[in-house]
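Second opinion, please. Please look over this fold, written as tokens:

===
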Amino acid sequence: MRTTNSKLSLTVLVIITFSIFATNAFTRIKHDDIKNTPAPEKPTNQQLRAGYNFIPTKIYTQEQDQQILKLFNVLRVSDVSDGMDKAGLANIGLMSPEIHASWKDTVHFTHRFIGIAITVRYVPTNQSPTRGNMSIKEFDDWVDYMYANVTPEPFVDILRPGTALVIDDDPSTDAGNIGSNNIMNWKSKGCVGVVTSGGARDTDEVAAQKIPLYMRTLTRGIRPGRNIVESVNRPVSCGGVLVRPGDVIVADGDGVIVVPREKAKEVAEYALATIEKDKASRLDLYKKLGLKPDDSVK
């Protein structure tokens, strides 16, 4: 009995010693990473008063975007989440489940998309709403002016093939930033899907058009008199997650996940191995159960 207790004590001691060593080594590595990262330049008071962005926007070429998108081509949110775990980013990038697909295609999965983020932020207006005694022409002129000058879509000219448009918006304004018309225009410019922390309208038509849309809620009103555009291609918050221009957006029936651009290759490599094993295993089960293979196992 005494010998057994001694062996057990020795084993516990070895485990504790190894754990302490591993923790110290990991901490030292992280400390070295921080130490080797150059400190950002401190802004002057004048810059701060004028408004200062602490997170810079990196610019990537279309070719660079396409190379990244090829890595993520067939991946699901669950695979990418596993890849994020492997990269040390557990529970990072997963948007709130409140951000969900506005429609789903369970045959060909056309509601899914993978894209490179372009961002826009709309904020509630602090201006007086339109008067209620306008003529039809006066109201239409006012709406046209507001759409062109106060709450426009300045991001349209930088949309390109593979773009995932991410909109940071306050759902309490009930402003329909997204509708069946403008989302088609965005698609014509190369946008593969849209994610918003707010809502959309014309959702029946959007579903019929089969343009991937992920949103928090339904919003019915027009933008004029409800919100104004604040910025384009700046870091935004959507679904409780930081989204920077150039990050990778993956969306499907499980929700939306954001992959930091600098971790994209590492995340994709592990995620790809995950889905390949999953497809092979599920295909065997389809055969055993006599199920006809669908697009999810091809």
